Amino acid sequence: MLQARSFLRKKIHVSGNEYYYIHIPAKLAHDSQFPFKDGDELRIIVDTSKKRMIIEKTGYSGRKKGRKVRGGL
Fold first, then answer.
1. Are 4 and 14 in contact (CB under 8 A)?
2. 34-70 pLDDT, tens per residue?
């Protein structure tokens, strides 16, 4: 089991929308056993009775491979 300490952060966008972030330490995310990668779609389950959060993959990866870059400025 991988384990690290983190914090829940709240940001207010200029549009007025509120967003919450959970920072995952790089040491944890770079571990070979870490099951997620950039672009993975995740399902977040909050178990209020046990005060815990479960994050799991949905099976969809939104990251595009081989992104084309247009040349010239």
1. no
2. 999 999 999 999 999 999 999 999 987 776 655 555 5
Taking Cα atoms as reference points, which of 21, 19, 35, 26 lies closest to residue 4? 26
pTM greater than 0.70: no
Please give the domain boundaries of the chain with CATH numbers for all domains.
Answer: 8-61 (2.10.260)
| Strand 8-12 versus strand 18-22 pairing type | antiparallel
Spatial distance between the Cα atoms of 58 and 36, rounded to a whole number of angstroms: 11
Single-letter residue type at 12: I
CB 48 within 8 A of CB 65: no
